[in-house]
């Protein structure tokens, strides 16, 4: 068969277009890196590790990223990233250490020499928006307990460390968690800290507020009825303002927070605060007043979650809440009424994860992908976030395998991808 030159040109152009289309369809653009803290083996003494995954911009699918690194201890339970996305901190409950890693351009993690060893067991961490302080809540771990059911025998403490170019410095302030003020009669109760968050306050250090969730083991101890020796309310939020020198000062009163609050999050503009109650399967909301010094319960709350909610996050635009339900192995999405703060479940209120999700994160580059760390599933589950309704749909090939017992998850944007945020 003979072709005219025009036909030959058309054929070559068509083939070139087809090849270009195939290669374009196969091109993968990384918008974020997701980090998962887990263990290298199934035993309690197994070394901790941090695995890195790259996020595909189109599907949200995860693929293996930079090499896995040691977490610097055993039983890693918490991770937090600095606001400039240049530093990552890991809390290892097994050897009571906080390890600092610097972040490379392509998600590479490099441990530096600034490792802190605590005298108590770390449980949760947060970094203030200015990147000048690292906050750690810890306690004296009770015998034969471990994450995610770790309990305390005392020593619940909030500690503030100075940060300098990401490096962990000295302790600048510390507060013992105990009931005080109108609840001083219960000051001897044993408290178990569970979560931690810092208000944004436009990056101004002075005047920020740190909130810690905890439950009263002396008032709520389902494993030992005879151990219940207090009539205090079981669940609490403790608030501390930060002075210009970093000094922490407790609010005038702690606030009641259900029975067993397990996680806490605030909207990006510090308007509303939300806590999940593991024992009652509910979401408790508060309006933040006077710069964080006063909390007021939202009307018509609390709000239902699934069974045994374990972690909570709010999308970067401050429009949606996502809570993991560890017993159900699901994620519950809620849309926030920006005028009242009242959360409403979305149309697809049941989204299955792998077994026992205990941590959750939203990608910061686009703010449209949600990932959970599944403790007994040894995996990450991925979802696409509908930017209009907040509803979730599963990502391609989810769940993605991890090491043993993943307990914490964090994410950073890749390169120059801007993070998503709005002022509601």
Commentary on this structure:
By secondary structure, the chain is mainly beta. It has a single domain (36-413), classed as YVTN repeat-like/Quinoprotein amine dehydrogenase (Methylamine Dehydrogenase, Chain H, 7 Propeller). The protein has one helix spanning 5-26; strands at 30-39, 47-56, 62-64, 69-74, 76-81, 87-92, 97-103, 109-111, 116-117, 121-127, 133-141, 152-164, 167-176, 191-198, 209-216, 235-242, 248-250, 255-256, 261-266, 272-277, 282-289, 294-297, 303-304, 309-314, 320-325, 330-336, 343-345, 351-352, 357-362, 369-374, 379-385, 392-394, 400-401, 404-413. The strands form seven sheets. Strands 1, 2, 3, 4 and 34 form a five-stranded antiparallel beta sheet that branches. Strands 5, 6, 7, 8 and 9 form a five-stranded antiparallel beta sheet that branches. Strands 14, 15, 16, 17 and 18 form a five-stranded antiparallel beta sheet that branches. A hairpin with a 6-residue loop joins strand 31 and strand 32 (392-394). The radius of gyration is 23 Å and the shape is globular. The chain starts with a helix and ends in an 11-residue tail after the last strand.
